[in-house]
Amino acid sequence: MHNKATMSSGGATGAVQPANEPSTDAHPTVITAENLTKTYGDVAAVDGISFSVPAGESFGLLGPNGAGKSTTMKMIGGVTRRTSGALHIMGLDPDSHGPEVRAHLGVVPQQDNLDEELRVRDNLLVYGRYFGLPMSYLKPKADELLEFAQLTDKAKSKVDALSGGMKRRLTIARSLINEPRILLLDEPTTGLDPQARHILWDRLFRLKEQGVTLILTTHYMDEAEQLCDRLIVVDKGRIMAEGSPAQLIREHSTREVVELRFGSERNTTIASELQGIGERLEVLPDRVLIYAHDGESALEQVASRGLRPLTSLVRRSSLEDVFLRLTGRSLVD
């Protein structure tokens, strides 16, 4: 797998030079963080986290709003200086080699910051000029990226005429103008409808196939399971767990979960009558969760005790169950 996106044989004409990489292995480490911290006064937004990301991996930071995910992304991108710890991007410290690091990064911020006054294609051309890329490269590259983002027929449209999903795809296309080796995506699908999310996921899968390293933050468990080879679960600036989605679910949860709703007034009081069913119980404000290796069997035990929930559902365990087990609260709290 290549370390650099090459959607066509053309490339930047020497404007963006490869950084010195830490090794010549098939999958060199492109990001290394050691005891990384960022404090604002007495508040530790990022509290001593360590991780490494090999080239070509899709690496996720999963956690609720305020967990420190976006702050970590800003430090990787060289936008925010760290308070302490070590951070290297392709062998370079972003605090001291910001321009060199950013030359190899594509950044998709949490909020689209497209130029609403410019037409769609011109957003790509103008952004490319910030990297010093020549128009002889930018014009065909912009057309290629618009096709990749499924926006070719919108090339001459004003940005404010695009749907939310189209704007998100244009932001991603813009981030790829310099053929980055690493793409940072901060909550890439927040606010999108299900169809737009799946289209975006498909584009990201294609980038990964081309060898782009993806770093993404999300609080959507299904997104993390779909897109991430490996992830860290972050809460209050600290890493709670690390591994592949399947590994984390296997280590911290049961195979299945039974969701029962008895009504908000009864969920807590009826929990005592569910003791002994499954491996463990979690009582949330709106539902009771029974963690069991055989959900249908657990549901039958509920019925055999004469308990009649308003609704019941058997599903497989997810990363949200992992987060609940590790922190005692759900991702949407």
Automatic annotation (TrEMBL):
Signal peptide bounds: none
Region (Disordered) residue spans: 1-27
Compartments reported by the entry: Cell membrane
Ranges where the ABC transporter domain occurs: 31-261
Keyword set, alphabetical order: Antibiotic resistance, ATP-binding, Nucleotide-binding, Transport
Topology relative to the membrane: Peripheral membrane protein
Chief location category: membrane
Compositional bias (Polar residues): 1-10
Family: Belongs to the ABC transporter superfamily.
Name this protein carries in UniProt: ABC transporter
Annotated organism of origin: Pseudarthrobacter polychromogenes
Top-level taxonomy: Bacteria, Bacillati, Actinomycetota, Actinomycetes, Micrococcales
